Queue: 2 jobs
Job 1
Amino acid sequence: MNIFCFLISYAIVSVCADDEADCKKQIVITSLAVARAFNIYDYTVGNNSGLNGLELVIESIEVNGRAFRESFAKINYMIAVPEKTDYLPEIPELDYLNRMKKCMFLQFLFRRELVIKLNIALPIDINKRIVDPEFDNTQNFGDLDLTDLAEQRRGQVVSALINIIRRGLDGPLWHVSDDVYMEWMSRMMGLYMSARLPSSPIKSVWINTQNGTFMLWDGSTHKRYKRILGVWHQINLNNSDPVQLLEEQLRRLDEELILL
C-alpha cells in the first residue's frame, strides 16, 4: 500500500513538473514572437503609419478582441506579467485546466495573435515542434526561472504600452464610443502599471461610466483617473480634483525607468 501511494505521488509530481516545463517553454516561444513584433515598424492604421507591430497587436486585442476584454486578469497575465501564475485562478475560463496548462494556453493565445496579425514565421499550432535558429528545443525548460523569462521581454512590453497610451491620449487608433475609449484607457494603464512594477501588478480595474472615471488597484493602493476637458488626469480618490496630468505621470515613470 505504501509503495502504491509512493508511485501515485511520484506520478503526480512528474506530471506537475512536466506541465511547469511546458508552461515555461510557451513563455520562451511567445517572447521570441514579442521580440520580432517589437522590431517591425511598417504598419499603417488610418492616418497613422510606421506603427510598431507589438503596439498594433496589443491595441488591437484591447479594442477589437471582446473575448480578451472580458477579463483584465487574462490580458494582464498574457501580456504584462507571465510569471504571476497566481493570477491564473482569477481567470474565469478554462477551469478544467490546471494552473500550468492554463499558462501554456494563454501564452499560446498571445503568440497566436502576434503570428497571425504580423505574419511572423512561427507555428500557430501549440503542439508543433519549433524549428528556428533562435530557439533551442533541447534546453531544459524546467530549470528556467519564470521571473527571468518575464524580464527578458518586459522592456519591450513596457515600451510598447507607454507608446500606445501616449498616442491614445486623444483616442485609440480605431474609432470607438466614449465608454469603450474609457475602458480601453483603463486597461492600457492597468497593463502598463503591471509591466512597469511587476512586484505590485494591478489586480483590479473598475470603470464608472456615470462620472467618467476609472480606478486601478494593486492590492494595497488605489489610483483614480478622469478625462477633464479632453485631458486625462489622475484625480483625488474622494472627488474629481486633479492630482496630476496623466502625461506628466507617464513622463516621470519613464524617466525613473531610464535611471534604473
Job 2
Amino acid sequence: MADHTYRSRRRIMVRIFSNQEQMSPNFRDPNGKPLFKKLTSPPDDNDIDVEKIKWTFKFLGLDERDIVLSKRRKKEEVIKMFNRWGGNCNEEHEEKNLAQWYDYFFFVFLGYCNDIEKTHFQFDDGRMPISDIYDQIKTMKPYVGKPKVFLIQADDISLLPSKFITKGGSDREIKTRTLPQDADRLIISSDIPQLFANRNHPEYTKLTDSTGSPGQAQPPRPRWSFLVEAFSDVMTDRQYTTPGNGDLLTRTCFINAKVSALVDELHQDLRAERTREEETRENPHVPMTVSTLRKLIFL
C-alpha cells in the first residue's frame, strides 16, 4: 500500500488566495466601485467560502499556522510567494524554502474569472492564468514528487441572468485548454457564481433580473459556493473515509455528484425564470477535474 500512496507525516500546507471583488472595469457602478462582490461574514469580513475552507481543514486536524489566507494579492505578489516557498529567490525571508517542510499542498483560489479570458483568474491588478503558477513550481525541488492540489472557485458572472450583462447568445467563447504535462497535480475548478447558491439573497435579486428562487424563504445566513460546500461535505463526512473510497481522487467523484445535484436544482429555477430571448445562454455545469497524480492521497 505504501508504494501506491504519497508519503505523509501529516504536514499539509494550505494557502488560500481570496479576491472578493470582480475587478473588471466593465462591471463598475457610477462611482467606479465593483458591482459584484463575494458574500462575507463577520467578524473579519472574509468571503464566506474562505471561512468554510478554513473550517474544513481545521476539522481535518490541521494547525492554524498551516492554513494561511492572502487577500487581494497582485499577480506578481502571488508568483513571488510560490517562488519564495520553493526557495527560488535571492531574498532572505522566514518563508524561504518553506515548501520543503511539507508533504502535501492545497492551493485554494477564491474569486472571479476574467470576463474576457475565461481561463484567467482575476487578481487585484488584472488577470493571469493559474497555469502560470503551475509552470513556476513544477521544477522547484521542494515541490517535486509531492501532491499539489489546486481548488479553484472562479465565478463567471456571465452565467448570471444579470441586468448588467449583455443578453442574447452565448457569452462564453469555447477555448482550448492545455492539459498539464507534469505529474503529482490535482486540479478541481468551478466557475458557477456564488450568487447562484444564494438566489433569495438581496444581492442576487439586486444584481440580476430575478425575483429569487420560487417558494424558498431567505436562509438565515449566506450559503457557500456549490464547489466549496461539496468539497467540505465530502472531506468531513465519515462515509467518504472508508476503505476503497477514501483517497482524494476518488472523493472528487462524490464532490462532482453533489455539485451536479445542486446544478440540477438550479437549472429548474433558471428555466422558470428565463425569457425566450435568454434560452440560448449557457447553463452552469459541474466542476472540471484534471489529475496527473501518480499515487493515492489520504488525509
